[in-house]
Amino acid sequence: MILEVLRQKAEDTRRELASAGTLINVCKGTGCVSNGSLEVLDALDEAANGCGKPCKVRGTGCRGLCAAGPLVSLDPAGVMFQAVKPKDAAMIVASMGESPETLAQGSAKDHLLDMNMPFFTRQHRVVLENAGKIDPERLEDYIAQDGYLALVTALTEQTPQEVLEVVTASGLRGRGGAGYPTGLKWSTVAKASDRIKYVICNGDEGDPGAFMDRSVMEDDPHRIIEGMTLAAYAVGATAGYIYVRAEYPQAIARLRKALKQAQQAHFLGDKICGTSFSFNIELRLGAGAFVCGEETALIASIEGGRGNPRPRPPYPAAQGLWGHPTLINNVESLSNIAPIVRNGAEWFSQVGTEKSKGTKVFALAGRVNHTGLVEVPMGITLREIVFEIGGGIPEGKRCKAVQTGGPSGGCIPEEKLDSPVDYESLAALGSIMGSGGMIVMDETSNMVDVAKFFMEFCMTESCGKCVPCRVGTAQMNDLLGKMVSGIATQADLDLLEELCDVVKHTSLCGLGQSAPNPVLSTLHYFREEYEAALAGTNGKATEIAS
After folding, report:
1. Which of 39, 177, 220, 506 is most enclosed, with most CB atoms within 10 A?
2. pTM
3. Can you tell me the distance from the alpha carbon of 185 to that of 170, in angstroms, rounded to the nearest whole number?
4. Pairwise CA distance, residues 318 & 322, whole Å
5. What is the distance in angstroms between the CA of the first residue and the CA of the last residue of the chain?
6. Taking phi first (over 0 means left), then psi (-120 to 50 degrees means alpha), and beta for anything else, what does residue 29 get?
7. Which CATH class is domain 447-534?
């Protein structure tokens, strides 16, 4: 009965949207908003009123191509306009009903985006499947895309163990960085005998250049709520927290609204959808400390303490929030759960590689033509991402390196770009998948400068609890500073390598343990630039060749 009501609600909303005529979708992602998309939305509203054509203007989520924003799309025509200004509203409204071929010959041609470009056609969207298709502030829009269908089906037709088995069989691995098998982590919490258990969504995305989780929280907040509730059902938790950094005001506002909507619709709270299962979620804001992305530091922050990590074991799955078993997954991991439960383990596992199943969302930034958000199958090569989806390097320059994994990752040289993007392959290259930041560098980049940038970040973000990270990152930053200034010696370079080894193997948490990665990878692939940066006979650094 509950399933029938939900399916009918979805069908009613789909019919309502179809009867509205042309849907004029305005991107309300942070990138487009910063470029004036809210003013564009107001102008389109005004132009659409009294135009004599059936249409509906609405705000939607990020379409990914942030470099071309503000973006406006027309459905069902499948037409998209780029770099839209309020003055373009009348032109867009007038173009309703025209084919892309006709528009390409008229006044709209300068704003028209080619929807057949690889940026769109080469993606495989699972986590981002609703982005640009729904108004993230309307629960009805989420339901129309089969939202909450997986949850209601699980609560009424499946046992917690069956949900757990589906997630395990899918091969999903944690998208927060380490790639730990999601089903195994869930099983550990599920087996714990404690009657009090928690589920935490880690939305503390702090990598420079990364905005994957922010976009999902802004564009599809109900997706996260449904994933968390399914996780809670599978492991036996009754309370959850979404931990998001306070620098994401738009994500916070939409999550708050979504939580209220879910409670009112009985997808959260006591006896969800009339079943015996109860689960509540609270939103907790972080102060912006990068170290709080580490799960034990995040737990300390939620508890009201300083965001310091603690030694493991015990792991949070056994002894986490307030000493109780705690399941922690990041935004992207939890956003995969509903489609996996809805479509089955095999549906998910047929995408990707043998050991890295599914898709991965990347924030493509730096010296690349099409910066933005992309979701691609695991196993795709870095070269395909940069040169096909990303459109190559601006100004005809040469790609020098791609940095993956944020401050914890490494810089991969151009000659290694044919390597597949999966957990094992990136690790073999001296980098990591990380949460999904991907920064492209061209021939003008100085790799010693790049290493110093990330080291300074790690030094600043160190919580200071352990000596290797607190002191080691500061000393490494000083040594890199001497190299950039041209006053370093061979002894400084030797000391830098020694410190990398010490900090990597003796730091308390992942921040310190991975802080040397950008230095180690650039030393491995671009050692000549470090040697060229050493002081010459005149006390100045030798010029570094591009």
Report:
1. 220
2. 0.94
3. 14
4. 11
5. 67
6. beta
7. mainly alpha
Q: What SS3 state is found at 239?
A: strand
Q: Does domain 359-442 have CATH number 3.10.20.600?
A: yes
Nearest of 518, 533, 431 to residue 485 by alpha carbon = 533
Residue 413, preceding bond cis, omega within 30 degrees? no
d(CA 62, CA 29) in angstroms, rounded, equals 5
Measured between alpha carbons, how far is 163 from 232 in angstroms, rounded to an integer? 10
pLDDT at 408 over 90: no
**For residue 328, which of 502, 175, 131, 506 has the smallest C-alpha distance?**
175
Read off the amino acid at residue 537. Answer: T
Report d(CA 401, CA 390) in Å as an integer.
Answer: 14
Neighbours of 443 (CB within 10 A): 14
Average pLDDT over residues 27-42: 94
Q: Is the pLDDT of residue 105 over 80?
A: no
Check if CATH label 3.40.50.150 holds for domain 16-121: no
Please give the CATH topology (third level) of the domain spanning 147-348.
Rossmann fold (3.40.50)
Q: What is 168-189 written as a DSSP string?
A: HHHT-B-TTTT--BHHHHHHHH
Distance (Å, rounded) from C-alpha 217 to C-alpha 248? 9
pLDDT tens readout for residues 148-165: 999 999 999 999 999 999
- Rounded Cα gap, residues 526 and 519, in angstroms: 10
User: In 3D, which of 386, 403, 512, 396 has the Cα closest to residue 447?
Assistant: 403
Pairwise CA distance, residues 6 & 92, whole Å: 35
Residue 541 in this model has a pLDDT that exceeds 70: no
DSSP annotation of 385: I
Does residue 419 contact residue 381 with C-beta atoms inside 8 Å? yes
Tokens in use for 283? 């939103």
Q: Domains of the chain: which residue ranges? A: 16-121, 147-348, 359-442, 447-534
